[in-house]
Structure formats: structure tokens, C-alpha cells
Amino acid sequence: MLHASPLDTSPSRPGAAAAAAPDLVKIRNLRAWSLIGVHPHERLHRQELRLDVWLETDHRAAAASDNIADALDYSAVAKAFREHAGKSTHELIETLGEELAQIALEQFGATAVRLSVEKPGAVPGTDTVGIEIERRRAESAGHSTA
Prior knowledge:
Layout: E1 23-34, E2 47-57, H1 60-65, H2 74-87, H3 93-107, E3 112-120, E4 128-136
Antiparallel strand pairs: 1-2, 2-3, 3-4
């Protein structure tokens, strides 16, 4: 699970060996702008979205080669997410979140992705509102929950 602490190596059942924590690539507080929302005033101008992304991958090949070609390129992920959000005209951040998760899994080969999409200032009296999803590559076609 992506949200489990990498420090938590306790076995899930008595007598089971502890599984190694997955390698993660993190992108925190990525800003993107999108025409998104259900209310008429939200359809007039692009709104700022804030994304937090955790991508599960295996760093061993990249660490051994010290070559970006063997790594999950977080700059490329950030660019792809910004471009996709910029072209999006969805009403719901849930829809955009699913599409971004698919990009991470299919285009960048992440084993799993955990993604939060937030709309700052969307609801008066709050800092932000948003969604958080987690998807694994095997689930990507069926949009199952983790």
C-alpha cells in the first residue's frame, strides 16, 4: 500500500516475513490550472489545482546506472500532469484524478499511484477541498479501488 509508512516493516500476519517497503517517487504541491467545476462561475476561468503524487516504482536499476533513462522521471510526470490538466474541461476533480492516475500507470510505468487533487478556495471557509485516490497497474483498466 502506498500510504503505509516505509518504516512499518511489521508482518501482516503472525509468522509472515516482513515485506520490503516499495520505492516511491514523490511530487508534492504540484500546481496546475484547469477549467474545472460544476458551477457556472467555475466554467469562466481556469482554476488552480494542487496535486500531491506518490508513484510506486523500483529504483534499483536507476541507482545502479545513475541514468535518468532507468528512472521514473518526475519532471516528465509533472509536465504531463500539467499539460493534461490544462487541456481538461471536466466538471469533477474525480474524473481528472482518474485520468492522471492512468497517465502515471500507463505512460510512466508506475506500479501504483496515490494522488490527491485539491481545489484551493473552492468552498468558502476552507483552505482547500479535494480527493485522494490510489490505483495499481492491474486495476487501471477496471478503475477498481485499492
